[in-house]
Amino acid sequence: MHDRGDAEISAVALALLVTVLVSFGIVHQVNKARAARQIQIRKLQRLVAAESARTESAASEEYTSMLESHNFCAVCHTPTKTRCSRCKAVHYCSSTCQVQHWNQGHKLECKAPALTCSSVEASSCKAPAVTYSSVKASSFTDYKLDNGIMAPTRSSNGNVIKNCFNRGSMQESYNAVADTRHSSGIAKKCSAEFINKEDEQRTTQDEITRGPPDSGFTVEGKLLNPKKILFPYDDFVNLFSWDMLKPPCGLINCGNSCFANVVLQCLTYTRPLAAYLLVGSHRQQCQRNDWCFMCELEDHVRRVFNSEDAFSPISILSRLRHIGNHLGYGKQEDAHEFMRFAIDSMQSICLDEAGGEKAVDTRSQETTLIHYIFGGHLQSQVRCLQCHHESNRYENMMDLAVEIQGSVESLEGALAKFTAPECLDGDNKYKCDRCAAYVKAKKRLTVHEAPNVLTITLKRFQSGKFGKLNKRVTFPEVLDMSPYMSGKGDDSPLYRLYAVVVHVDMLNASFFGHYVCYVKDMDGVWYKIDDSKVKEVDLDKVMSQNAYMLLYSRTSPHPGPVAEYEAVTSSITRLGACAVENSSPGGKSHELVISRLRK
Known about the structure:
Layout: H1 2-68, E1 71-72, E2 79-80, H2 95-109, E3 143-146, E4 149-152, H3 170-209, E5 218-219, E6 222-223, H4 233-240, H5 258-268, H6 271-278, H7 293-305, H8 314-317, H9 320-323, H10 335-353, H11 369-374, E7 376-384, E8 390-397, E9 400-403, H12 411-418, E10 422-424, E11 430-432, E12 437-439, E13 441-449, E14 453-459, E15 478-480, E16 494-504, E17 514-520, E18 526-530, E19 533-537, H13 539-543, E20 547-554, H14 567-582, H15 589-598
Parallel strand pairs: 9-14
Antiparallel strand pairs: 1-2, 3-4, 5-6, 7-8, 7-13, 10-13, 11-12, 14-20, 15-16, 16-17, 16-20, 17-18, 18-19
Helix pairs in contact: 3-14, 3-15, 4-6, 5-10, 14-15
């Protein structure tokens, strides 16, 4: 009996020993795995810290170089970009310094610079006139690097193109822009003698026939014609047909700046806008003394097309509040919201060049380059079901934001839902002017004039922190907008996809995430751009994305506007007569200016 008890105790002790050893083994393995995870976490933290330090260093160097490139105030010698709007030769940091310098004698010295071109041949001028006819479709067939600057070499007919880009340094390009601005100033001065007298005699008659400026948008349900054309539509058509073959260049993330990076990439690959900025057209007529978004965007686009390495767009990111009041550097923002602010800012700059928004009637405000690119019209039609009277109202559009809730599974379905008729009944009855009563009616919102560049945003972000819709919504490469048109004022437009913006998130969160974009060059090659990383992808990869923003370009531009008054033609005719009469036998400078105005 005693031996049996000892055997049981030994078995229990052995079992306990085995249990202890197994427990120690498990604990050892757990501790080993935990130590390995901690080592991996520390390694990742070091990599993140190194990447953050590198990004911060690059952004600091970029910001420092931007400050060093500034000019200095003529009074207090503070770095500044603000300059005298007349002579462009002196700079000021504030209006106080400008007034002080003006009173000190600058008002006696401030003069618009004169032309420096004196040779017979236009090619001998320091700044050959840039014409939009030189940026027609397929005009650029080859590129080569000259002093680090990407420049087109020959056109389709073999002639060397000299007017689209200046080879050499960026400073030479800006000098050429300044010279052409001076030539346009002389042309205006030359035409003033012929225009002023006739305008004085015509003032009384104009007041009778034209009346006060009309701020309306429609008359009797029809769109008014603009009273004047701010940007020639033929020039826009040439820009729209321009070809650019340069692959995209990455942009460094300067801290939560991916939302701005993707929008800047999309704007850079918006063909007419890029062509306009690359030929330096904006700087020739920019009248802003303070910071100008289009001037910075022009520099940005030039740098993209002249660089192969990623760079930081700090010169734009540091001035986000000038684009949108509540935007802030380093904050997470919405890409669609930044796109809207950027387009509105460029439109405002174009109107400032025409005298300001208040100086231009509503319909003429739609004849700027920016509105030619992104602008269109929506039609809201209400049809009385009793007398069948139709009431049409029109509103301006710069993009479309469509709902994807419910059973919507495709972009076509979202557009069909956007343009679906709505029945007005019950407490929401329509008051018909013809019936003089509240009646049943049908209301439908359609696209009356489709824009040349159509930006469509899928409403993925809903209310709440976890309110993002990550559902799959298909979209076509070629979009036919005819089913969603009002059937008036525009032919059936076809669009081709050229850019896609994607928001990458975790757990369907709407309060944080990351933006990437896909853009297509003029050869039809697609690229994925993730901040500074750029790689070529196939079309199937693009079409499989959960898109947030889609950018389409029309296969051909829509018909241009027709001005109500044709005073521009007569003014150019008188200007041409003035230039011929006052030009010297051996000079061509005035003829260059006139040819530019007539094109």
